[in-house]
Amino acid sequence: MNLEQLKIFIHTAETLNFSRTAKDMHLSQSAVSQSVNSLENELGIKLFTRDTHRVVLTRPGQSFYGSSIKLLINFEDMLQTVKNLDTAEKTNLVLGMLGTPLDNTVMPWVIRDFNRLYPEIKISIRYFTHDELEHALANKVIDAAIQTADDVATNAYFHLFAEGKFAAIIANNEPLAIRTELSIRSLDYHNLIFLLESQCSPQQKELQQKIAELCSNSTIYYANNYLEELAMAKTALGICILPFIKLAGFPQKDELVSALPIRESSEIGYGVVTKGKAINPATTTFINWIEQNKLS
User: Fold this and answer.
1) In whole angstroms, what separates CA 207 from the centre of its chain?
2) Residue 282 buriedness (CB in 10 A; 0-12 / 13-18 / 19+)
3) How many domains is the chain built from?
4) 84 and 119 co-located in one domain
5) 129 and 71 share a domain?
6) DSSP state of 253
7) What does UniProt give as the signal peptide span (predicted)?
8) pLDDT tens string 263-295
9) pTM listed for this prediction
10) Measured between alpha carbons, how far is 198 from 208 in angstroms, rounded to an integer?
């Protein structure tokens, strides 16, 4: 028994006319008869009674017709599901981000430019805390993550597309905001907003510890994630420390805050992180494009 035999049987059961089935399915009448006879022989039952005047479904034939319809529908549903999954792998890309200034300022431009070239690839963006992002990548909730190079798990792959430094994000009404760069000691006596150490990349954790040591007269507040940290800075609750990339064409300040690189900060690398080499075609296309169009 094969799918073609089922289709011929179903059509014949619905038309009760071998000639009509042959015409509709672009077959010879003998081919239809042979297919039905072969199916009956395989099942060991008569599906139709037929004479020179009419064709009638037997009771077993009626039962087999109902089961065949369900089988064909399930088979076609299965095929469509598989095709949808294949299409999704080729055209869907889910990116996970932490909410850094890069994620909120540069990445929208990057994604827009990418979509101009690859409009068939649909990108979704999801924000996570540090721990959530690592878990989402490990469990394939996302296809790729945007992270700093120092924070990549040993079993993950990092694809560099930009480099920068950590910056102090400071409200524009603060006197320090007129500067183009800050030293760590210039932050002393100012309220500071740190990211919880459990949510920090290794470089950010090290820098925060150094700032805390050198700015003993500052009050330090802690945020649970980058988005919270940035929101606190924008409401002038303090100066926060975030990864930052200074790029031509991208503003170093907005209407509320300015990003001032910290002189003592080491270089940080940004890139796309994937869990393994077995990534979907949409992710591969994005990574290849990113690596060919590095931002700095």
Assistant:
1) 31
2) buried
3) 2
4) no
5) no
6) B
7) none
8) 999 888 888 999 876 678 889 999 999 888 876
9) 0.62
10) 12
